[in-house]
Amino acid sequence: MTVSAVKIIQPGEIQGMPDDDTPLLVLADAKSLFTDRAARLDQLSVREQGSPWLEFCAQLSRAQAASLNLVDSAPVSEHVVRESFKHHMPPLSISSAQPGPNFTSVLSSICKAIKQVNSSEKVLQAVEGLLKLAPQDQMAQAHAMLEADDAKVTVEYAPFIGAALQVIWTVRARQLESLVSLHHGESGLCPVCGSHPVASTIRMGDRAGHRYLNCSLCNAEWYAPRARCTNCDTPKEVSMFGRTRDDAVQGECCDDCKGYLKLMLQSKDPLIDAMADDLATYSLDVALADEGYMRTCRNLFFIS
């Protein structure tokens, strides 16, 4: 696969915070999110002529949806949330918040659900190995994943651990629904939990034309001005690289920091899902790496 520059956006073209009632922070409904993501992954798998990897990811998403009732999230202090947003700090920060006692239950539920639907020897070996770990060892790997200390995470366990962490943080984040208007700032990291984005999406509908970064952990979406590198915030132009102009997924590349983030164009595919479509466009990552660019995002279903 080769890539070519299909567009260069000058910094002055589309930039700045909206001056209308465009929401700056949108939280996900966990049940519909994971169910819809599974359906999208099924669709992408068919498009890729039966990708076992995407089929597995769809199974993981369905297992996530089925484990939501295991999360007994403690109420979040409104004072803490207000003070956090006031000082541009994430109220559910991965540097201070803990996965909590529900983590091992959610992880076990996801693993057991996969055992029932996946016959791959490699997958089943990973599930068995993870279930045999002591709870403290499972938690240690979870902490390492939150801290992006990937060297301490067993590669085969990563999708299951990432899936369980997503469930917990997505449910927790929903508790902030009545306070999202307190977020007014710009950030390259999630204003809810402090995680990296998995991608960015230019939306349709009531948010048409606006770009949102999609959190890799809690699945929140936050407004990000277009024509700006979300990694280094350079005033220089960013380039769009893709296979063709019509591709719904492009690489937004910065020649200042040599980083890139995938940009999902919902106008070209209304069913697009940031995490699912990131998983389905790995060939674009390979091509952009060949061009000298580095990913500035994370996807918790795999570590590189």
Automatic annotation (TrEMBL):
GO molecular function ontology, one term from the record: ferric iron binding
Residue stretches making up the FdhE central domain: 189-226
Biological processes, Gene Ontology terms: protein maturation
SUPFAM superfamilies the UniProt entry points to: FdhE-like
Domain FdhE C-terminal: 228-302
Keywords for the protein's UniProt record, in alphabetical order: Cytoplasm
Gene Ontology annotations for the cellular component aspect, listed alphabetically: cytosol
One Pfam family per UniProt: FdhE_C
InterPro entries linked: FdhE-like_sf (IPR024064), FdhE_C (IPR056796), FdhE_central (IPR056797), FdhE_N (IPR056774), Formate_DH_accessory (IPR006452)
Spans traversing the lipid bilayer: none
Gene3D superfamilies named in the record: FdhE-like domain
PANTHER family: PROTEIN FDHE
Protein name in the entry: Formate dehydrogenase accessory protein FdhE
Source organism of this protein record: Sheuella amnicola
Taxonomic classification: Bacteria, Pseudomonadati, Pseudomonadota, Betaproteobacteria, Burkholderiales
Gene symbol of the encoding locus: fdhE
